[in-house]
Amino acid sequence: MSEGEGLQFERAEFENAPAQSQCAECNRSLTGFYYDVSGQTVCEACKYTIESRMTDGSAVGRFARASGAGIVAAALGAALYYAISALTGYEFGLIAIVVGYAVGAAVSWGSNGRGGKSYQALAMGLTYLAIVSTYIPPIIEGFREAAATESAIAEPAATDAEESSATPVNALASTEPSEPAASAEPETGAAGVLLALVLIVAIACAAPFLAGVENIIGIVIIGIGLYEAWKLNRRSALAITGPHALGRPSVEAAGA
Prior knowledge:
By secondary structure, this protein is mostly helical. The chain has helices spanning 3-16, 44-55, 59-88, 95-110, 117-132, 136-164, 168-175, 178-184, 190-210, 216-231, 251-255, and strands at residues 33-37, 40-42, 240-245. A hairpin with a 2-residue loop joins strand 1 and strand 2 (40-42). The radius of gyration is 33 Å and the shape is elongated.
């Protein structure tokens, strides 16, 4: 083999080597050889770290961690969405995309980037709940106004009924069973509060579709936010190759 052919071999090896001389994970300089992990150039230590990250822990633990991280991101996103709406008086639908990205990234972090249908469903569900939760305060306020209106209508009718039956006999008769009647009145317990919360959340979830075609743009934006959450949690299979020798600069490059 001639000397020229050896130099050509050296140059080909350099051209096939990675453009970066640092590990994509730890940013340390690569020496001797490298590994390719799904398109990322990493050192040997980081290669083993990435492999262990994908296999360590239990499925339940990873899902719980992803759920916790997603819930925190969803709560922060909902607070941001509602704060901007309350301060400006306008609803900026584009925030839904930001919420979808934040929740999707949080769930992906919590699952160590494993991805899959269960994590996609979790991210999309939390994203949608975060978006529609901004409808809850107006819904509660609407219930309060309806209750106040109903009470205002019922008070005059009750006053008229009391005045028409205000005779000594009727008054005496009405006072006798007062205690049993009061005790028979149902009290609102935990079950009633839970039922009310479920009803409010159900109305909030349906709220974006109740306006029909008038809210078509809002529905599309929500769909984009859900897509962001779904996309960030697609299952990613690790493709690891290596070790690959680092190329060495050619004689011509060294002489220049």
